[in-house]
Design goal:
eight-stranded antiparallel sheet; three-stranded mixed sheet; elongated; binds zinc ion
Length: 479
């Protein structure tokens, strides 16, 4: 099975470069007392409220859907001490009542070196170990959390999405599939959580940034943290940009600096709850040690995003390892179970997902064994049957015309939908064998969602039942 683009391994540690809060070009603080004095001369700004009024259960549903992807693609640290710590800090902010109480905020730590934390609509929040390592004190880390939680509470992503009409059909099955899968199928597997955040966090406006800063600062103050630590942390990151931009650079594109962040916070200090404002408290030090002692994350986060090692071209057919245990994959509206020692990775360019056993890919990107999942937009077809034939032609062209149908398409079912399946044969990229390609398609929102099950003839009796199991597990419109 030739595919137009080579399989690339998922990016490693740098894949989530959404450094949380960075500011460029703002003045050094002149001390809190001075700041408060100046602040008294400023008018109180209204505490921001959400301008988006859609049903809140939608935020929660969207967040859950993307959180499931994040948990698959990133390494959530199971350490209890760390988890309870991040929950203590997060819940301290939530308990202020400054944030929308209708959202079930949750907090998890993911092993990722970049300095970031991100929250999905409706409240699932993920804190990078890089943030814990980089914060000088608990208030700085809490500041990043407060800023991100404020985006959730103010529903900025939902408002964004609505503006861009990417969630018009959300809530219906088709919408969920469209919004997630057709929008960036391959990215889910290839870039892990980036899909989860990219789709919803996207780029915040400067207005949204100002609002998140302000509500975040109020929330911090009420929780007893010094809101200025948020600004101090921004400064620190700004200084670090020169040394290691990769760790934080992404933030600049996601969270544009609204300008004078420090001054904006300072000017409102007088109106904020007078907390104990201590910079040095909490258990951050021990958590930093704990984080530093973690074994390094496998490439591709949990390892599920990484592709198998390519075999040399024209290799003999390898022994495929097929685990009896299946793991669940949830990819933007599509869920399925695959042997847990197989790789699930994606190709951003083609928007395809590939489920591959070790040895399933050869140099140059030819797939010798595995399942390819993609979407096809019919060009001239007037019916599904014609669209299916168009798809076969397109796949055949990608295989230099060497793919042939063995029989007429058969009617099948997938996820309770009607599907067509064609059995094709082509030369295998492995030495001395032919290849079976079972192509199955179903219609989703005027496009074809298709699955191609690929395997060498000599191992088909081993692979065929696995493909059957995987296809049976497929759920379209899952969330
Ligand atoms: Zn922001």
């Amino acid at each position: 099975m030739e595919v137009p683009t080579a399989i690339t391994n998922a990016p490693g540690a740098g894949m989530m470069r959404r450094a949380a809060v960075v500011l460029m070009g703002f003045a050094l603080l002149g001390g809190e007392l001075l700041a408060q004095k100046q602040a008294t001369q400023q008018k109180q700004k209204p505490i921001p409220v959400a301008k988006y009024n859609g049903p809140k259960d939608k935020d929660i549903a969207v967040g859950k859907q993307y959180a499931a992807q994040v948990e698959q693609q990133m390494r959530v640290i199971p350490n209890e001490e760390l988890t309870s710590y991040i929950n203590r800090v997060g819940n301290r902010l939530v308990a202020t009542g400054m944030l929308d109480r209708d959202f079930p905020y949750t907090f998890k730590v993911v092993q990722e070196q970049s300095i970031n934390a991100f929250a999905l609509p409706g409240g699932p929040m993920f804190v990078h170990t890089g943030l814990i390592a980089a914060a000088e004190n608990e208030a700085q880390m809490a500041g990043v959390l407060a800023h991100e939680l404020s985006h959730v509470s103010l529903r900025h992503s939902m408002a964004n999405a609505k503006k861009q009409q990417t969630i018009s059909g959300l809530g219906s099955i088709g919408g969920a599939v469209l919004g997630g899968m057709f929008g960036g199928l391959g990215q889910i597997a290839a870039e892990g959580a980036q899909m989860g955040t990219q789709a919803w966090v996207m780029k915040y406006s400067r207005t949204a940034e100002s609002e998140a800063d302000l509500l975040g600062a109020y929330t911090m103050a009420k929780a007893g943290y010094n809101p200025l630590e948020l600004a101090r942390f921004f400064e620190k990151l700004e200084q670090q940009m020169g040394g290691d931009p990769g760790k934080i650079a992404q933030f600049f594109s996601d969270h544009p600096n609204p300008g004078n962040r420090t001054t904006a916070i300072e000017s409102q200090l007088a109106y904020m709850a007078p907390g104990s404002y201590t910079a040095h408290e909490g258990d951050l030090d021990s958590m930093r040690k704990l984080v530093a002692g973690l074994p390094s994350a496998p490439r591709g986060g949990s390892g599920q995003g990484a592709g198998p090692k390519a075999l040399a071209a024209n290799s003999p057919v390898p022994e495929f390892q097929i685990s009896q245990n299946y793991r669940h994959i949830n990819a933007g509206g599509l869920s399925l179970s695959v042997p847990d020692n197989w790789h699930a990775n994606g190709d951003k360019q083609s928007g395809r997902i590939m489920i591959l056993p070790e040895g399933g890919v050869l140099e140059g990107g030819a797939i010798g064994a595995g399942i390819l999942i993609g979407t096809y937009q019919p060009k001239q077809a007037q019916s599904w049957e014609q669209a299916h034939q168009e798809l076969l032609q397109s796949l055949t062209q990608q295989n230099q015309g060497k793919m042939q149908a063995e029989a007429e398409p058969q009617n099948m079912q997938i996820s309770g939908r009607n599907a067509l399946m064609s059995r094709m044969v082509s030369p295998s990229p492995y030495q001395g064998t032919k290849e079976h390609d079972y192509v199955l398609s179903t219609v989703v929102q005027n496009q074809l969602l298709y699955f191609v099950c690929v395997g060498p003839d000599s191992r088909w009796s081993q692979l065929g039942p696995v493909y059957g199991k995987v296809l049976q597990s497929v759920r379209i419109g899952a969330r």
